[in-house]
Amino acid sequence: MKKIKIAYWIITACTLIGFALSAFNELARTPETFVSTTQHLGYPAYFLTLLGTAKVIAIIILLIPNYYRLKEWVYAGLTIDCISAFWSEMAVGNPMGSIKSVVVLAFVMLSYYLLLRMEKGRLTHNRSLGIENS
């Protein structure tokens, strides 16, 4: 259980750092992010604020202990973000740009898998102690 927890936090920290950097660039509207999103991909400028804010909320929720059901929603949102980024890059003819989305999605999925393993271990441990799970 301890090894799974350590692996979870290493993978999740790497994932969250990537999303935090992305959120910062979107909320700060850095020139490179602004141009690549609005001109290259064709999204409206307000989309940067929406996307950056959603990522900040996701990061906060994943850092808060417990709330496993809410975390599942966060992982669903991050998965949708990665798939949308992949599809957007492919739609504008940039397959190399879509590779990053696939790598990030792999980290998201691995983090989620390890969260499920930790939750299963917690439930099993509590059951062995006779503690009612909520």
Automatic annotation (TrEMBL):
Membrane-crossing segments per the record: 7-25, 45-64, 73-92, 98-116
Recorded superkingdom: Bacteria
Protein name in UniProt: DoxX family protein
Keyword Transmembrane helix found: yes
UniProt entry tagged with the keyword Transmembrane helix: yes
InterPro entries assigned: DoxX, UCP030066
Membrane topology: Multi-pass membrane protein
Pfam family, one: DoxX_2
Keywords of the record: Membrane, Transmembrane, Transmembrane helix
Subcellular localization(s) per the UniProt record: Membrane
Main location: membrane
